[in-house]
Amino acid sequence: MPRDIGRAEVRRLLTEGAQLVEVLPAEEYKADHLPGAISIPLKHIDPDGVAGLDKDRPVIVYCWDTT
Amino acid sequence: MSPRAAWRLETLGFKDVSDYGDGKLDWMSAGLPMEGTNAERPRAAEVARKDVPTCRLNERLGDVRERAAAQGWEAAVVVNEERIVLGLLRGKELAGDAAQTIEAAMRPGPSTFRPYLAIAEMARFMTEHKLESSPITTSDGRLVGLLLKDDAVRVADEFHRSHGGEEKGC
């Protein structure tokens, strides 16, 4: 089950090698994204779209917000 | 959007998936560094006033007007319980019949703009279209704040001067 995490936990996981994925449309990623994030828009989260991710390392996803 | 992505990743075999639910807005609002074409430019989300009064459709205009005035505002944003923008009350609308409901008095479906837009771009657009204020919302319509044209022009011009003419407000 995915965990909902906050900013501090994001920073901690990144120092431990987590993969950071922005799932917003590509043009929104191009304008602004978190340092080190890669772009995989939600509609591309499929076997081909995530082929570049390592399944053995933690993954963090984000968009603008979900509140 | 990101919760769906997180669940989808699990179905694809990823065993350690986390969702940063507060997302890019939270990161930006904390003043942490960003990358991308807008990284060094002031953006709409940073300049928008987060303290803009909000109200609901079924409130009375007179009550909202009083509340806004008490906070020094001549505008209010109409939102639902999820803070989705439904309408806008600028000075003209707020000056209407106090007994009206907000639903009857508001300007429905105002144009909204995304948080990541460069402030110079917003300043130009708002000046050209004579917009005194514009709601800034997330891509799913949730209110971030109200951007005032005067703020946008001032910040864009300050950035322009401090960066040797790299960017011009209007």
| Helix share bin of chain A | 10-25%
Instruction: Please state the oligomeric state of the protein chains shown.
Output: heterodimer
H and E string of chain A: EHEHEE
The total of helices of chain B stands at 8
Structural class of chain B: alpha+beta
Question: Quick one: how many beta strands of chain A?
Answer: 4
Strand content of chain A: 15-25%
- Going across the major beta sheet of chain A, what is the strand order? 3-2-4
Intertermini distance of chain A: 19 Å
What would you say about this model in short?
The complex is a heterodimer of chains A (67) and B (170). With 67 residues, chain A is of the alpha/beta class.
Give your account of this protein's structure:
The complex is a heterodimer of chains A (67) and B (170). With 67 residues, chain A is of the alpha/beta class. Helices cover 22% and strands 19% of the residues of chain A. Chain A has a three-stranded parallel beta sheet, with helices on one face. In chain A, 40% of the residues are buried. In chain B, helix 7 (119-128) packs across helix 8 (149-162). Chain B has helices at 2-11, 23-29, 44-47, 61-70, 91-94, 102-105, 119-128, 149-162, and strands spanning 17-20, 54-55, 76-79, 85-89, 107-108, 133-137, 143-148. In chain B, strand 3 (76-79) and strand 4 form a beta hairpin. With 170 residues, chain B is of the alpha+beta class.
Keywords:
heterodimer; A: 67 residues; B: 170 residues; alpha+beta; four-stranded mixed β-sheet; 8 helices; flat
Secondary-structure blueprint:
The complex is a heterodimer of chains A (about 70) and B (about 170).
Chain A: E1 3-5, H1 7-15, E2 19-22, H2 26-31, E3 38-39, E4 59-62
Parallel strand pairs in A: 2-3, 2-4
Chain B: H1 2-11, E1 17-20, H2 23-29, H3 44-47, E2 54-55, H4 61-70, E3 76-79, E4 85-89, H5 91-94, H6 102-105, E5 107-108, H7 119-128, E6 133-137, E7 143-148, H8 149-162
Parallel strand pairs in B: 2-3
Antiparallel strand pairs in B: 3-4, 4-5, 6-7
Helix pairs in contact in B: 7-8
